Structures are given as structure tokens and as C-alpha cells.
Amino acid sequence: MRHYTHIADLGVAGVERVLARALEWKRAAPGRHLDGRVLGMVFFNPSLRTRASFETAMLRGGGNAVVLDVGAGVWKLEYRDGAVMDGDRAEHVREAVPVLGRYCDALAVRTFAALEDFDTDNADPVMRAFRSYTSVPLVSMESAREHPCQGLADMLSVHEHAGATRGVPVTLTWAPHIKPLPHAVPNSFLLTAAAAGCEVRIAHPPGFELHRSVVAEAEALAAASGAKLSFTHDQDAALAESQAVYAKAWGPSAQNASVSAHPDWMLTRERLDRLAPEAAFLHCLPLRRNVEVHDSVLDHPLSKVVGNAGNRFDVQRVLLDMMLNGG
Ligand code: CP
User: Fold this and answer.
1) 131 assigned to some structural domain
2) Domain co-membership, 91 together with 199
3) Which residues, in sequence order, are CB contacts of 147 under 8 Å at separation 6+?
4) Neighbours of 132 (CB within 10 A)
5) What domain range includes position 255?
6) Under a CB-based contact definition with an 8 Å cutoff, are residues 293 and 247 in contact?
7) Which residue among 44, 45, 50, 54 is best mutated to probe the pocket of ligand 1, counting the most ligand atoms within 8 A of its Cβ?
8) Is residue 162 part of a domain?
């Protein structure tokens, strides 16, 4: 039984395989490869792209999906071992997860970081609980630590744009926001780009460092793939001659850092001139226009944000095939 909840479940070879097959299936669709299969999708948090892309991947493959919104027509779920359940969480995942396994061939879960404690979020408690109790394959639709399907879609976009991922300079730049956001997307961009062999540049203001365990994992992937990693507080230097720039807001790792203290980090049209000619601008979406990224970037021909969202479908149908068919 294969679970795909973290990039570590794929490693360098697995990331390469998903990207290669996604490119192949974009040229020739696989047909009803998921015939009669049912995916149970459990959402603790909202979604547009993840929900629609997983559901359509199942439907177009000949399967089906059951969508459960925790706390909205579905019991609120407890995940902590030993919890005294005298609050509003009426069911424990110890029962709920194996029960869903009696109806579904695979499960998918979305659960955001609580943003109360950096180390606790990095330990991914809800995803780990689902992983412990599931009797069927499990895939992440984003958890506190990682959003692996997003990272795979991002690398598929880089590959389509640059013709490769190995050695391609890609920049992840921090973006301002009105509130702290989870680290799952930047973590996954770093981990997947490291596995894919890119020249990865991470730029952020002081106080917004990614978790040391994510950086260490990315360094190990880079050693295996030949990727190069660099970290800087200088956005302009990180953008120079990069072939893809990915902007993303994430919350502080230092208590005295504020997400609204660096409005000058918002990507503007002028900053695109620092990139290599014909570079791509990417973002996971959703985003707040003119807070994180200026209109003049999003509406520029270099912006590939819609195509990047489309690539979620393409990488996820490969992962679903690997989970359900051992492909
Ligand atoms: N990028 C992404 O995961 O989008 P949603 O939150 O809309 O699913």
C-alpha cells in the first residue's frame, strides 16, 4: 500500500517518474484507468483547485469521488491520542479513517497548519494520524508541513517552460500578506525543486526562515539529484537571470517578524526585468492581487499561474494511478 503524503514518499526517482508520466499523459490521455474506483476526499479546510482537480481526475479516469467537509455536514474530528472528547469534536479519526476505508479505495485529506507552534506544525499531526489509521492508500491534498501535489505541479510547469528541471535556475520569493500563512507550499516548492535537480534560490526577509528539518531534507535530496540550493535576504539577487519565479506569502518563524512589514517585497512588473528573457511567473493560487503580487505581473504574458493550476490535474492523475493501480 503506497501513501503519497510527503515528497519523501517519492524521493528523487519518484518525482522524476511522476513528471515524466504527466508529460506523456498530457500528449496521450490514459483513458478509464481508474474505472469503478472511489476516492474519499476529507477537507478540514477550504479549496478550489485541489477539490476540483482531484474530483475531475477521478471522474475523467472512470472513477468517482466522495467529498466530506469536516464540520459542515460531517462530524468534527478529533485526532489527538488520549483526548477527552468533551468539546465539539464528536468523532475520533481512529474510527473515522478506517470506516472510510470500508467504502473507498483510497483517501485524500486536506488539513492546514494550526500556526500556533512551528515545530508542531512541522510534525504534521493530523496527516500522521490519518496515515496511522488508514487501511487504504492515502494522498495529501495539503497538510501542515507539505503540499506535495502543488510542488509536483510547479515542477511540471518549470519543465514545460524550460524543457527540463535539472540545472534550471528557479526562485521562490517570499511575498507580503495581511496575515501569516502556512509553510506547506514553500516547503514543497523547495523539496520538489531539490528532488528535480533545479538551481533553487529561496529569498525572504529575516525572520521568515523555513523549518530547519525541511532545509535539511532538501539538502539531502539535492545531494542525490545534483540540485543546488541557496538562501538569501536579497530578492533582487535571487531574481537575477532566473528562468522561473514563484512568489508566495508565508508566516514568520521568528516572533518579532511581521507579514506586513515588508510591502516592498511585492513582485512588480519592473522586477520581472531581472529575470532571464521569457522566464515564467508562477504561483499556487489563490492570491491577493496588489498585496502579494501586483496586477502588472499577474496580467503579464510571463504569468503562467492558470496553466500551473491546470497541472495539478496532470500530476494527480499519475499519483492516483500509482496508488490505485500500482502504476
Ligand atoms: N493551490 C491550491 O491548493 O489551491 P486551493 O487551495 O484552491 O485548493
Assistant:
1) yes
2) no
3) 140, 184, 185, 187, 188, 284
4) 12
5) 150-308
6) yes
7) 50
8) yes
For the stretch 186-210, pLDDT in tens is 999 999 999 999 999 999 999 999 9
Is 1 inside a domain boundary? no
Residue 161 and residue 140 in one domain: no
Ligand 1 binding pocket mutation candidate from 311, 312, 313, 316 (most atoms within 8 A of CB):
312
Tens-digit pLDDT profile for residues 12-51? 999 999 999 999 999 999 999 999 999 999 999 999 999 9
Distances (CA, A) of 162 to 124, 149, 159, 256: 33, 20, 5, 39
| Same-domain status, 167 and 282 | yes
Which residues neighbour 46 within 8 Å (Cβ) at sequence distance 6 or greater?
Answer: none
**Considering the entire predicted model, what is its pTM?**
0.98
Closest approach atom of ligand 1 to CA 53: 8
Would you give the DSSP letter of residue 283?
-
**Closest residue by Cα to residue 93 from 129, 121, 67:** 129
- For residue 90, the domain's CATH number is 3.40.50.1370
Q: Which residues of 48-65 are buried (b: 16+ CB within 10 A; e: fewer)?
A: ebbbebbbebbebbebeb
- Asked if 137 and 204 sit in the same domain, the reply is no
One domain for residues 213 and 283: yes
Angle formed by the axes of helices 11-27 and 305-325, nearest 10°: 110
As for ligand 1, residues whose beta carbon falls within 6 Å of it are 47-50, 142, 150, 284-286
Contacting residues for 152 by C-beta, under 8 A, at least 6 apart: 15, 18, 19, 22, 192, 315, 319
For residue 48, which atom of ligand 1 is closest to its CA?
7
- Contact (Cβ atoms closer than 8 angstroms) between residue 3 and residue 139: yes
Q: Which amino acid belongs to residue 138? A: L
Q: First vs last Cα of the chain: how many Å apart?
A: 12
Q: Are residues 297 and 228 in the same domain?
A: yes
Q: What Cα–Cα distance (Å) separates residue 107 from each residue in 212, 263, 305? A: 30, 40, 27
> Which amino acid, one-letter code, is at 270?
E
